[in-house]
Design a protein that fits this description.
The chain has 205 residues and is mainly beta. The protein contains 3 helices and 12 strands, in the order βββαβαββββαββββ.
Length: 205
């Protein structure tokens, strides 16, 4: 598996050879620095730890600073582990967007936009209760009955109710790579990607 950390730049559109307008997302993918190589002998499993986006030393703990110094790199804002990584790497190596093949397919993980406290119509796509006639007053967007009275005389766990929406880790699978621009570390994929502009995303191939 090949993986990269990136930052969502925004959305745009491109035209295909057939003249179709294709919505796409532009991502600043890498460069990422290898901060640690984990092996079965030392850690019990194989993984590659990579970091992206420099941060100031004053915002870094001493433990973190020592860890990055050991890898011979500046402190990083975003650090992840990728198991079963393809290729041989050592701490301090740089992985660029060239690791992603053009005209291939990727999975992208991000944190969805936070929407705050929302009702069931927006949060779970409820239709609302009834219509505006037959005595309806102000209950059009209400969830309706939550459970029976005599039995079980309680509300089941997991009942879909109003609450906080968004801010969840989501993965979109099988996004087609439309273009790779190594000069500016840009990756253009077809469709939308979870998260707001400027948020971090993880790209798996």
């Amino acid at each position: 598996m090949t993986g990269l950390i990136g930052k969502k730049i925004g959305m745009t559109s491109v035209f295909s050879v057939e003249g179709k307008n294709i919505p796409c997302t532009v991502i600043e993918a890498g460069p990422c620095v290898v901060t640690q190589v984990k092996t079965v002998e030392t850690d019990g499993y194989n993984a590659l730890q990579i970091g992206f986006s420099d941060k100031k030393e004053k915002h870094t703990t001493k433990a973190e600073f020592g860890h990055f110094q050991k890898a011979g790199t500046e402190p990083k804002r975003k650090v992840i582990e990728i198991r079963d990584f393809e290729g041989e790497y050592k701490p301090g190596d740089t992985i660029t967007v060239d690791a992603i093949n053009a005209e291939s397919w990727v999975d992208i993980t991000g944190v969805t936009k936070g929407k705050g406290f929302q009702g069931v119509v927006k949060r779970y796509n409820f239709a609302g209760v009834g219509d505006s006639t037959h005595g309806q007053h102000n209950r059009l967007r209400a969830p309706g009955s939550l459970g029976a009275s005599s039995y079980p005389s309680r509300v089941f766990k997991g009942m879909r109710m109003a609450g906080r929406k968004g801010g969840d880790n989501k993965t979109v699978q099988n996004l087609k790579v439309l273009k790779v621009i190594p000069e500016t570390n840009l990756l253009v994929v077809k469709g939308s990607v979870p998260g707001a502009k400027g948020s971090y995303v993880i790209i798996y191939q």
